[in-house]
Amino acid sequence: MRILVVGGAGYVGSTSVETFVDAGHDVTVYDNLKTGHRDAVIRGARLIVGSLSDQNRLERVLREHRIQAVLHCAARSLVSESMEHPELYYRENVSNGVKLLEALRERRVPRIVFSSTAAVYGEPKRVPIAEADRTEPINPYGETKLAFEGAMRWYAACHGFRAISLRYFNVAGATERNGEDHDPETHIIPLVLKVAAGELPDVRIFGQDYNTPDGTCIRDFIHVRDLATAHLLALDATGEAEPSFEVYNLGSAAGFSVREVIEAARKVTGRAIPARVVRRRSGDPPRLVASSRRARRDLGWTPRESSLEQMLADAWAWKLSHPTGYAKRKPRAPRHHGRSGGSGDAGGGRGTDAEDAAAAGEGEPAPRSERVAVPVSG
């Protein structure tokens, strides 16, 4: 299969590219590198630097590389930023997303998988969350993801698209090659590991009086490799189906509490990892967990590496081998690029999902250049 991965230089996209290449597929990455990393794209894939706002260029890429299916991972994904600048999220997540759909329609490439978010559900009335549960986003990030899903649904109904959206909360772990490197960093596992590495003084726990076994919030996680497998299974499914739009949740069905994450990180790293309890934040639900029963049944997806210990061990190994992330690493040999460069409006590397894990805990505020803004979770 000839696959275009939009946002393929980011955390989620780059690990999916690895999986696709290992499976023998021809992979093209399209990314503006605003938040993605050139060195995250493995040698077996070609990187084209470009913006989703450039529909003509997208069409050329689809034509020149004879693309058969698309994985869409590109989006702005910070809840706090979306509350301050909703216009950016509607322009980049919705308007530019529709330009991608239009490019696919013009080039007659009707197969697309969207790496979405469980933030579309807002504050759930029950857990685990099922696909049929009401979608009531509480921030522009979740709202714009849902709006793009709506566009996919109508392109399927009116233009014969075979489209799948995968919704999940938090992604963790790493491959030997790629891991999380965000600026700012807002996710609980990399923040806890920053404390373990001595980069932050402690982890803050926002409340310990929730109706959960240990009193701290419970959040859902999946390993980034398991997500990559789900992406590939979903792309395969679009090749066999009639025109349709399908939604699948991905999750552990159980989740892990903040204290469980911190304690497991202490065991994995062998470090103390100081933590302190502070006042709970308004809007943090006690438990956010997605049911993946439908994905297991229809796609044959089984999360094989999403134990908490495995995710932490892989993330810690990557951090130790990449202490500065992708920065200041020895340049590699040049690889294929598109004929004209330049980044534009649309998001590049997507990162993990919208700060949902960070709602449960974060490091002590760092100096201004490193400060992490963390809103309530979706």
Question: What do these coordinates show?
Answer:
By secondary structure, the chain is of the alpha/beta class. It has ten helices and 15 strands. Helix 5 links the parallel strand 5 and strand 6. Helix 1 packs across helix 7, helix 6 packs across helix 8 and helix 8 crosses helix 10. The C terminus is likely disordered.
Uncertain ranges: 329-378
Side-by-side strand order of the widest sheet: 3-2-1-4-5-6-11
- Report the average pLDDT across residues: 87
Helix content: 25-40%
The total number of structural domains is 1
Q: Say how many strands there are.
A: 15
- The assigned structural class equals alpha/beta
CATH class: Alpha Beta
Query: Helical stretch count?
Result: 10
Morphology? globular
Order of helices and strands: EHEEHEHHEHEEHEEEHEEHEEHHE
CATH architecture: 3-Layer(aba) Sandwich
Our Rg estimate from Cα atoms comes to 19 Å
Biggest beta sheet summary: 7 strands, parallel
Percent of residues in β-strands: 15-25%
Q: Indicate the CATH topology.
A: Rossmann fold
> Can you tell me the CATH superfamily?
NAD(P)-binding Rossmann-like Domain
Q: Termini, distance in Å?
A: 35 Å
List the helices and strands and how they pair.
Layout lengths: L1 E5 L4 H12 L3 E6 L14 E4 L5 H10 L4 E4 L6 H6 L1 H21 L4 E5 L24 H20 L2 E6 L2 E3 L15 H9 L6 E4 L11 E2 L1 E3 H15 L5 E6 L6 E2 H12 L5 E4 L8 E2 L4 H7 L8 H14 L39 E3 L15
Parallel strand pairs: 1-2, 1-4, 2-3, 4-5, 5-6, 6-11, 7-10, 8-13, 9-14
Antiparallel strand pairs: 8-15, 9-12
Structure at a glance:
The protein has 378 residues and is an alpha/beta fold. The chain has helices at residues 11-22, 55-64, 79-84, 86-106, 140-159, 188-196, 224-238, 258-269, 293-299, 308-321; strands spanning 2-6, 26-31, 46-49, 69-72, 111-115, 162-167, 170-172, 203-206, 218-219, 221-223, 244-249, 256-257, 275-278, 287-288, 361-363.
